[in-house]
Write a structure and sequence with these properties.
With about 210 residues, the protein is α+β, with helices and mostly antiparallel strands. The protein has helices spanning about 1-20, 180-195, and strands spanning about 25, 35-40, 45, 60, 65-75, 80-85, 95, 105-110, 120-130, 140-145, 155-160, 165-175, 175-180. A six-stranded antiparallel β-barrel has the order 1-2-3-6-5-4. A six-stranded antiparallel barrel has the order 8-9-10-13-12-11.
């Protein structure tokens, strides 16, 4: 039994470690530091709108390289932002499905709490949807039983396959966090592409 548990633990750790390679640090020029996720290998990064500022945006890659970042667009209502840096061949996150998340499903938040780079915390899905108590009315979110410390915001919420299912966003109680579902992120990026505010390349996965 121990060998089986050890094998499962090692396999899970490998998948989470793979996801960590796509998680960046974001500075908004005010000393604030949050996280972001590389969505496309040519430098497209998604994060929370509340993480960014309008000027002096800087992205620090997992290998330590720093890049000035351009803000492409943001949606304050859904707390999503898209950034672009001048880089290519970057490690991207695997994207999962947020609409099929079930209560009790194990999830992991990746970020930089209190400046600890690439840290991970885990919890379970409480519920998901647009009718959650203590959430803004009509706002589609994932409620998770874990604690987001400062620095997790903007980083990915991933499932046991290491796939991104949301963006870590806020705490709503002592042990309850909320994440923006990845299908909302896809819709946001699709709108950017269709309105020609970003390169017409395919940024949205199926």
């Amino acid at each position: 039994m121990f060998n089986i548990l050890e094998q499962l633990s090692n396999e899970l750790a490998e998948k989470i470690n793979a996801a960590q390679k796509s998680v960046v640090q974001i500075s908004n020029g005010k000393g604030a530091l949050g996280a972001g996720t590389i969505w496309h290998a040519d430098g497209l990064i998604v994060t929370n709108a509340h993480v960014i500022g309008k000027r002096n945006l800087k992205v620090i890659l997992p290998d330590g390289r720093a890049h000035a970042a351009k803000l492409l667009a943001y949606d304050a209502n859904h707390d999503i932002a898209a950034l672009k840096i001048d880089a290519d061949n970057l490690p991207i996150i695997k994207v999962g499905e947020s609409r099929t998340l079930k209560s009790g499903e194990l999830v992991f938040a990746v970020g930089h709490p209190w400046g600890v780079i690439g840290a991970v915390t885990s919890g379970i899905v409480i519920s998901a949807g647009a009718a959650l108590p203590e959430m803004a009315r009509g706002r589609d979110l994932i409620a998770v039983n874990l604690r987001y410390r400062p620095g997790y915001s903007g980083g990915p919420l991933v499932n046991v396959e290491g796939q991104m299912v949301g963006i870590n966003t806020l705490m709503t109680g002592p042990e309850v966090g909320a994440a923006v579902p990845v299908h909302i992120v896809k819709a946001f990026l699709r709108e950017l592409r269709e309105t020609a505010r970003v390169d017409a390349r395919e940024y949205v996965t199926a």
